[in-house]
UniProtKB/TrEMBL annotation:
PANTHER family: HOMOLOGY TO DEATH-ON-CURING PROTEIN OF PHAGE P1
Lineage of source species: Bacteria, Pseudomonadati, Pseudomonadota, Gammaproteobacteria, Alteromonadales
Pfam families: Fic
Organism: Psychrosphaera saromensis
Name of this chain's protein: Fido domain-containing protein
Domain of life: Bacteria
Fido domain span: 16-93
Molecular function in Gene Ontology: kinase activity
Length: 161
């Protein structure tokens, strides 16, 4: 999987994973209540896989970008869509063998730019360069559940109010 060019064996997040991620993200802001439109969430969750199939794209960085964009734009959750989108993309990369460690200010900026429909931020081929720049290969991909245990370290401090 060097350089993000996995040709097979991509591990995907399922909608239940995204719900757990959203609930965990909201636990840092207890005044926000959980709600989800499951039909919208299922569509957002499938978008990277569909993109991979129809675009013949196996690059995990492009697919992580597509995942972040699709969750952010779908707005399936009542609260925490940007947080969930970012965390899901981090976990997606991690379960596929990459550790993503961007600068916090860039996380907030890209998340905002996607939500406000900035054209470049909503282009997965552009956004993938950010994922690629701040990612390093991991010797041991891990499962989604173990990533959720480390979630506080994934959430930017400005989102933990």
């Amino acid at each position: 999987m060097a350089n993000g060019d996995a040709t097979k064996g991509i591990r995907w997040l399922v909608s239940e994973d995204l719900i757990l991620i959203n609930k965990k993200a909201l636990s840092f802001t207890p005044y926000e209540k959980f709600s989800v439109n499951r039909n919208i969430l299922d569509g957002a969750q499938q978008r990277p896989n569909t993109f991979s199939y129809f675009e013949n794209c196996k690059d995990v960085y492009v697919l992580a970008a597509q995942l972040m964009i699709s969750i952010n734009k779908a707005h399936a959750f009542g609260n925490g869509n940007k947080r969930t989108a970012f965390i899901a993309s981090v976990i997606f990369l991690r379960i596929n063998g990459f550790i993503f460690s961007p600068q916090e200010i860039e996380i907030l900026q890209f998340s905002h730019d996607i939500a406000t429909k900035c054209p470049l931020a909503n282009d997965p081929y552009h956004l993938q360069s950010w994922f690629r720049h701040y990612s390093t290969p991991s010797k041991y991909p891990i499962g989604v559940r173990s990533q959720l245990e480390d979630l506080p370290f994934t959430i930017p401090t400005l989102w933990r109010k």
